[in-house]
Structure formats: structure tokens, C-alpha cells
């Protein structure tokens, strides 16, 4: 059964879509159908009401996270509607994104996210465009540059806690370069390990 909302620890995760503008080599969906006991390939995209009903009382969670098998900003209107409702009910909202929002939706996306999310975590993944393109296989030619611009614009609003992430597998030197990039954009860096 497809999971639109799944729970890990004391957080709830929202799985809005299978669509993604990257095809990252390390992505869990390349070798698993889900995480824990949750099936994350969905047979259809959920409605706003379905997600909110499945979430229930949002104040019971440490945070509600947009993170599934696809890129959440591919369904920006639904993301914003759900995020605003969760925050109105006293919940904290995090968006995990590949940062392609400016390419998917254009200039409006940063303003749209204000009031809908508290934390934005952008997958930096690599210290330069060449490495990024080789690792993430984006559908957009200027994905890396746009991802950095998206992060910078979000940080400059002062409305979000901005984070970026990389996998430790890229090597210590690359991780440190990524740490410098994140800092220059107003973000902190999270170094992740591969999900087994």
C-alpha cells in the first residue's frame, strides 16, 4: 500500500509525488521500494485533504517533513496549502528539497514558501557543477547554479532556518568545500550517511 504520510521517530513525513527533477545515483529509490516498513512508490498523488486527515493532530509531532520518493516542490500549491495548515495548527514544518524550485516555478516560489515552512533543507550533494551533474543527473542544464541561487534567496528572506546536505561518501575534502559553500549562502551543512 502506498504511503502518503509515514512516521519515523516523533516526526511525520509527507510523500507528495514520485516526480523528481534529479536522478541521483545514491537515491534510496534506486534500490528499495521504501524505508522501514513504508512503501513510498505511490500509485497516485494525494489530495491536500487526504494528507491533512492522515496527519491528524500535528502538535503531537516534533516536526512535519515534506520528504518522500519525489521532489515536493513539483507540487508547490499542495505543499504550500498543507504547510500553512500545519503551521496554523501549531506544527513545525521542514521542506527537504533538491533546490530546483526556481527552475520548476520561477521567481514566485520563495515568497510562496514564506508562512508555509519553517526549515528548508537543500540537497547540495557536490562542491561543483561537474560533480553535481555526474552524481545527480538533473533534467535542467543549470540545476546546480539555480540550486545555489534558490538557497541564497531563501536565506536572505530571514524567514527560514536554512540547511544544506551532502553524503559523506563524496570524501572529506569535498565535504569541507561544501561546508564553505553552505556557509557562504547562509546555511549550515548536514553530512548524511547512506541509508542501508
- The overall average pLDDT, rounded, is 95
What is the number of independent domains?
1
* Major sheet characteristics: 7 strands, mixed
CATH topology category name: TIM Barrel
Helical amount among residues, as a percent range?
A: 25-40%
- Percent of residues in β-strands: 15-25%
Question: Given the helix and strand composition, which structural class is it?
Answer: alpha/beta
Counted beta strands: 9
State the distance separating the first and last CA atoms: 21 Å
Number of helices: 7
The strands making up the biggest β-sheet line up spatially as 1-2-5-6-7-8-9
Folded structure, characterized:
It is a single chain. With 196 residues, the protein is of the alpha/beta class. The chain has a single domain (5-192), classed as Aldolase class I (TIM Barrel). Helices cover 35% and strands 19% of the residues. It contains 7 helices and 9 strands. Strands 1-2-5-6-7-8-9 form a 7-stranded mixed beta sheet. Strands 3-4 form a two-stranded antiparallel sheet. A hairpin with a 2-residue loop joins strand 1 and strand 2. Helix 1 (48-55) runs parallel beside helix 2 (76-88). The chain is globular, with a radius of gyration of 16 Å. The two termini are 21 Å apart. 38% of the residues are buried.
Name the descriptors:
alpha/beta; TIM Barrel; two-stranded antiparallel sheet; 7 helices
Describe the secondary-structure layout.
Elements: E1 5-8, E2 11-14, E3 34-35, E4 38-39, H1 48-55, E5 63-66, H2 76-88, E6 93-97, H3 101-105, H4 108-113, E7 119-123, H5 129-136, H6 143-157, E8 161-167, H7 172-185, E9 188-192
Parallel strand pairs: 2-5, 5-6, 6-7, 7-8, 8-9
Antiparallel strand pairs: 1-2, 3-4
Helix pairs in contact: 1-2
Amino acid at each position: 500500500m502506498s504511503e502518503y504520510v509515514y512516521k519515523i521517530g516523533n516526526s511525520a513525513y509527507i510523500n507528495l509525488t514520485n516526480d523528481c527533477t534529479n536522478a541521483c545515483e545514491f537515491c534510496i529509490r534506486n534500490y528499495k521500494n521504501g524505508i522501514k516498513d513504508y512503501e513510498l512508490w505511490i500509485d497516485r498523488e494525494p489530495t491536500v485533504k487526504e494528507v491533512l486527515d492522515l496527519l491528524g493532530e500535528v502538535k503531537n509531532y516534533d516536526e512535519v517533513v515534506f520528504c518522500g520518493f519525489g521532489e515536493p516542490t513539483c507540487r508547490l500549491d499542495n505543499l504550500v496549502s498543507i504547510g500553512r495548515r500545519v503551521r496554523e495548527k501549531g506544527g513545525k514544518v521542514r521542506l527537504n528539497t533538491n533546490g530546483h524550485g526556481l527552475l520548476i516555478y520561477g521567481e514566485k516560489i520563495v515568497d510562496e514558501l514564506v508562512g508555509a515552512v519553517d526549515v528548508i533543507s537543500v540537497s547540495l550533494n557536490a562542491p561543483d557543477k561537474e560533480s553535481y551533474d555526474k552524481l545527480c543527473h538533473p533534467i535542467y542544464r543549470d540545476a546546480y547554479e539555480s540550486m545555489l541561487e534558490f538557497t541564497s534567496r531563501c536565506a536572505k528572506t530571514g524567514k527560514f532556518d536554512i540547511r544544506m546536505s551532502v553524503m559523506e561518501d563524496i570524501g572529506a575534502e569535498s565535504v569541507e568545500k561544501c561546508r564553505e559553500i553552505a556557509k557562504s549562502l547562509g546555511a549550515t551543512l548536514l553530512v548524511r550517511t547512506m541509508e542501508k
